[in-house]
Structure formats: C-alpha cells, structure tokens
Amino acid sequence: MKLEFIGADQEVTGSCHYLKVGVLNILVDCGMEQGRNIFVNAALPVAPSAINYVFLTHAHIDHTGMLPKLYKDGFCGQVITTEATMKLSDIMLRDSAHIQSSEAEWKNKRARREGTGEKAEPLYTVEDVIGLMRLFRPFRYGKRYKLCNGVEFRFTDVGHLLGSASIELWLSEGDTEKKIVFSGDIGNKNQPLLKDPELTAEADYVLVESTYGSRLHDVHTGDYEQELADIIRTTLLRGGNVVIPSFAVGRTQEMLYFIRKIKQKNLFPEKPDFPVYVDSPLAVDATGVFSETGQECYDEEAMDYVRRGINPLSFPNLNLTVSVDESKAINEDPEPKVIIAASGMCDAGRIRHHLKYNLWRPECTILFVGYQAEGTPGRNIADGATEVKLFGEVITVRAEIKMFDGLSGHADRQGLLDWMKGFTKKPAQVFVVHGDEENAASFVKLLNEEAGLNAMAPFSGTEYDLAADCFIKLTEGVRIGRPETAPEKGNGQGAESTGKARLPHTVSDSYTNLKMTGRRLTDVIEGCSGMANKDLDAFSKELQALAEKYRIDEH
Q1: Which is it for the CA torsion 376, 379, 383, 384, positive or negative?
Q2: Distances from the Cα of 129 to the Cαs of 76, 136, 277, in angstroms?
Q3: R_g of the chain computed on alpha carbons
Q4: Could you tell me whether strands 318-321 and 400-403 are parallel, antiparallel, or unpaired per DSSP bridges?
C-alpha cells in the first residue's frame, strides 16, 4: 500500500498523486502544469494502460488537463468524480483540446514559412476527449461507496467550484486498513452562490492544499452587490460599457448571480432592464451546467431562488453569445451595456476584442474581478498602464479602471487551518501539497506549531508506505528552466496564483499570524456583550495600552 507524489508538490499546478493498493493502480487527479514550472515532475510509475481508476477532485485544468493525454496513451479504466465535475470537465477539456490543436496548427504554419519541415502534434484532440468522457462515472456527495475489493470512497463538498470535493479513501490490503483524505482545492468562506467547505472528521493520512498557505485574504467589509450596482449605474448613465474580464467557469457565474440580485432589488432604477452579455462559448456552456446541476452545491441563499422556481443565474435581458458574428455585433450596438468575457487576465479570448473597442473610451469602465498575473495585459492595465498593444495596434487607456478585491475561490491560511482542525482525531501524517515553496513551508510550520500535527511538504518522486507508516523514498526538488517565465496561454481555468493585482510585497509568517490573532480578538470582543461594565472597562484599558505600546508613528 503505497502513495507516490507526482505533481503539484512544492508547486501550485499539475496535481497528480499515485496510489498502489494490492494489484490496483490509482491516480488522484491528472492535471496540467500551467504558467511557471519550477521543478521536474516524476514520471508515472506504471503505464497509462495499467491504471485502473482516476479520482478527480474538481474540473479545473490543473487537476484534469492531462487526462485526455492519459487516455490517448492507453488509459481505459474509470474516472470517478461528481456529476458536476464530469459535466464541467467535458466542456473544459474540449476547450483545452481546441487550444492544443490551434497551437499545433500555428507552429506548423511557422515551420512551413521557415522551411524547417518540423511538424507539431497537439497534446490531444477533441476526439481524445470524447473517448475519455465515456470512462467517467458520477457519484453523489456524502455517501460512502464501495468501488472494488480494497477501496471505498466518499466525496465531500469543499466549496471551491461547482462539483469540487475532498476525497476520503478507505484502503485495505491483507489485514491492513488505512484511510487517506485528499483535500482537493478548498473553497473560500462566505463566497457567493456556493456552500462553505464541509469538514472531514477522521483520517490516518491527509494531503492538504496550500495555495494560500502563507497569506490571508483582504477582509471585504463592503457590499459587492451595491458596489457593482454603483459601477454599472455610473458607467451606463454616462453612455459607456462596463467590460468585465472574467474566468469562464466560476467567476462568470458569480457575476451573473450578483447582477440578478441587483435587478431583483432594483438597485439601478433608472434602467432596470439594462442589457448584459456573456461573450464566451465556454462560459455559456458552464453556466448551463451550473443551472442544471447546481442545487447540490448552492448555498442557502441561492437555494431559496431555486425553491421559488427561479434560476439564480438568469434574468431579463441576459444575452449569451456563442458565434463570432454575435460577438462582433455587441460592439456595433451603441446601447450601453455590461460585457462579461474571457479570458480573465486578458491574455487570450474575446475579451481582447472588447478591450480594443472600449479601453480608449473615457465613458467606459474596465472591472477586474480576479487575480491578474504579472506580465499579462490585465496586470498591466490594473497597474496603471497608459496604453496597451492589441492585435498589433496601440490602444490608449482612457477608460475608468476598477477592481474587486476579496473574491477568491481558494481558502486563505486561516481557512485552510480551520479545515484541518475539523479532524477530531489527529492524522498520523499530513502532506502539504498544491502550494509553492513559500506557501507550502509556511503552512507546514503553522500545522506543526499551532495545530500540533506531523506535517511536511514532499517533492515530486517522494514515496510513502501507508501500511508501515514510513517513507520509502524522500526526494529533493530538481529545478528546471529560468527563474521567471511568462504565464502560459490557455483557458485560464486552473489554480489561482497567490499574488494580488498589484506587485506583492513579502509578508512574514509572524505578521500573518499577528493578523490571524487580530481576527480572533475581534471574535472575543463580539462575545463580550453582556459582561459587567467594570470588566469591559478593564479589558478596554489593556487593549489601549497594547495599541499605544506598538503604535507606529506614520510621520
């Protein structure tokens, strides 16, 4: 009974882990590496044709993107996941296949022009995706299933994406029984549309993500609906368009949810029927999946709509565009409108056309609702660029630039710790994965020192004997490539990067822990209501003395 670490170990993308249970060969996720690639990944220890099962935590490409290649190379087992993940994987992997084919075609055209004779082949094709999807088997949350002799499993909703799950696996080999839990990507709390992450009580071993293992999200104290309504109202009344670069799966649906509530509450009374366009075939398909299968994952507020027979992602004058002609017509229509289009970082897709037609117009607003990676057009615009180059043309930036901070699909350091504290019995070993070196190391330290857990962050190629509770092999990371590389183009549907929309500064573990303590102190103060006045006064004086002691003079 063996666990081997393949991908997203001391890195954020390319999630893949291998289990050997008796004669069975099992993968948990089979993701594509996206953006910066730091360490060499170990090869799969068996041929694709020898793999019996693949469990998927969710549909993002950094967890599913290499599945069609696995199928192309001989995999013919079963893919075990939730229904929503199955449906989202279908549309996202088809989109990924189109990207692979387009890139291969572009490389071949260049090779012909240069006379090199080299022929590029796509990593996989749409036909590979179609064949792969026949192997998917969907299961529901919360029920323990027997997969085969030696393997039982259960999915738990972790609120990261529609259909996302942590996976509990009960493994047996001879007289030995072990339980291992894969967290997948854990969602952020109090986000729109989806439930908060659910906890798991028991495990012998846990693999936990650490995307934001050293960071806390900025606490958003405002009202997203009102803020969005104000932006839409101001922009449309001055005759401009609100252009929202957005990831097609997840963030786009959150924006639609906000806009439905804006219209329902009549927060734009001058024009309650303002038009909204979703201009992304992938986003249109994904929104359909949310509408069809969302009930299992929706939070109570969204479910209230459903119980009243209302689609929480639909409203009057919502226009879903698929064809190129429909997309072009959006900017030919002079009526002020809201335009939501991919990609979220403005480095590909139809959003670039909408920026070309709207960036130079001072009456328009460009609203960023997600992280903008360094080096992308979106990051440049967010950082105050006065002009950008689109389709070979220099476009002056005159539109108003706005940003929504605080929206994130990933739990922060505190959220990850809260999820780990859900285990009522301490696991024998915790493996910290899916985080870069800084975040993984920081979260390991937190788990060891604050939660009293035995945690470590393995590199790819590390092997662990689950039956004997010991390492078979401990590896060191082998670095590759240049220190920095440009973000890889694609559909952008992978892990969030761990920076912010502006150049991040280094934040120490001690400062982050201080902020976490401050949040706990706020909870303590909230619980002091009803205490005797003399006790409240004494507590207040102590806090004032501390504040004065550590006050930093701004001048």
Answers
A1: positive
A2: 13, 11, 29
A3: 24
A4: unpaired
Q: Estimate to the nearest angstrom the gap between the alpha carbon of 299 and the chain centroid.
A: 18
**Four-residue CA torsion sign, 438, 442, 443, 448:** positive
pLDDT tier, 228 (very low <50, low <70, confident <90, very high otherwise):
very high
Does the pLDDT of residue 500 top 70, yes or no? no
Q: How far apart are CA 64 and CA 85, in angstroms?
A: 10
Confidence band of 167 (pLDDT split at 50, 70, 90):
very high
Q: How many CB atoms lie within 10 A of CB 273?
A: 9
Rounded to two decimals, the pTM is: 0.84
- The pLDDT of residue 504 is 30
Residue 512: the pLDDT is: 55
Beta bridge partners of 33: none
Q: pLDDT digit string (tens) for 412-459?
A: 999 999 999 999 989 999 999 999 999 999 999 999 999 999 999 999
Question: What token pair was written down for 254?
Answer: 């959150």
Please give the Cα distance from 290 to 501 (Å, whole number).
27
What is the length of the chain?
555
Please choose, from the candidates 351, 131, 119, the residue with its C-alpha nearest in 3D space to the C-alpha of residue 242.
Answer: 351
Task: List beta partners, residue 54.
Answer: 27, 79
Coil, helix or strand for 376? coil
Q: What whole-number distance in Å separates Cα of residue 184 and Cα of residue 29?
A: 9
- What tokens does 122 get? 């796509």
Tell me the C-alpha distance between 555 and 546, whole Å.
20
Angle between helical axes of 509-526 and 437-449 (0-180°, round to 10): 50
- Give the DSSP H/E element, type plus range, for residue 358: helix 351-358
Q: Is 109 exposed, middle or buried (0-12, 13-18, 19+ CB in 10 A)?
A: exposed
